[in-house]
Amino acid sequence: MSSKKLKVIALIPPPDEVVDVPLAQDFAACESELGLALPADFKQLLSTYGKGSFLDYLFAYPLAGSDMSLQKNKLLREGHSAARAKSPENYPYPLYPEPGGLLLWGGTYDGHSLCWLTSGAPDEWPVVVWHQRDSNYHLFRRGALAFIIDWLEGALPPHALPAPPPGAGWFESARRLREAYMYLDGGLGNFRDRVRLLHQAFGPVQARGSCTGEGDYDHEEHFSTAQNWRITYSEWPRGRLIRIAFPPGEESAARAAVMSVYPKLGHTLRHVQTAQGRHVWTD
After folding, report:
1. Which of 266, 261, 264, 258 is nearest to 280 (CA)?
2. Which of 60, 81, 172, 256 is most buried, most CB within 10 Å of its CB?
3. What is the block-wise mean pLDDT of the chain (283 residues), using blocks of 10 residues?
4. How far lies 120's CA from each of 126, 174, 232, 239, 269, in Å?
């Protein structure tokens, strides 16, 4: 077992039930399709954790489905072809399957694309964090596993990826979940008062980490409920947000619970939407 694998396991123990663990033939089939060998540390990552996410934020693409595929990366290149032709300065790296191009291996729920720069030996490929919305790139001369370790330890520059909450550490295997984002105004007391009320309303809860930004109104709290719903409560200068993630069959219960909670915090409701921006729960 490599030292990097031992370190990431020490920081984040693998889940009790690992899902979608690739077999040797799965790696071989993926490499054959891509025409590239995959880095050994990435294989260790998927073999140890399977499909899921670190801290409800960072994830590696599984081999199953279309995530780590030739077609997905071709579509990525084709989708940027017009923009590259118009503003080539925004694309300092080639895109796979161009020689040495960026190849997707993971991402974050903030929309960062985690890529390898596929030049040289696979085990020496550096990681590039690409935020496609604003054409920002950050190059790290390390592999995927070392990159994740640095992120977990808060060693990455904050402009590359937001640091995780201090002392937080978990990996959650993939589940089929729906998400609802409740945008709110107002509120009783301060942030910690409202978090306490939320914990009481949804209790018992399990803390999943918190973080504080640079401003007076820039806080975030993560926790899970006895039903294993995942909840994030955020405060920022323009308002408040409750994000709740739940299995599809529990939407009615999740909706009833969160709709009964926000008035207890002194909030008024703006709207509720999905991650894709579609308004829901309007009746």
Report:
1. 258
2. 60
3. 78 86 89 92 93 88 70 86 93 94 90 93 96 89 94 88 78 86 90 90 84 62 88 85 92 94 92 89 81
4. 10, 32, 41, 47, 53
SS3 label, residue 247: coil
CA angle in degrees (0–180, nearest 5) for 64-65-68: 75
All residues at 6 or more sequence positions from 138 whose CB lies less than 8 Å from its CB, including other chains: 128, 129, 157, 159, 160
* Separation between Cα atoms, residue 111 and residue 236, nearest integer Å: 19
Both tokens of 257, joined, read: 């619970």
Which structural domains are found in the chain, ordered by start?
Answer: 3-171 (3.40.1580), 175-280 (3.30.160.110)
* Residue in the structure block whose two tokens are 């039930």: 17
- The amino acid present at 31, given as its one-letter code, is E
- Residues contacting 234, CB < 8 A, separation 6+: 219, 220, 221, 240, 241, 243
DSSP labels for 18-79?
--SPPPHHHHHHHHHHHTSPPPHHHHHHHHHH-SEEETTTEEEPPSSTTTTSHHHHHHHHHH
- pTM, two decimals, is 0.74
DSSP label at 164? P
Q: Return phi, psi of residue 106, to 5°.
A: -175, -170
Termini Cα distance of the chain:
54
Q: What letters, b where the CB count within 10 A reaches 16 and e where it falls short, cover 80-114?
A: eeeeeeeeeeebebbbbeeeebbbbbbbbeeebbb
Residue 94 carries which DSSP code? -
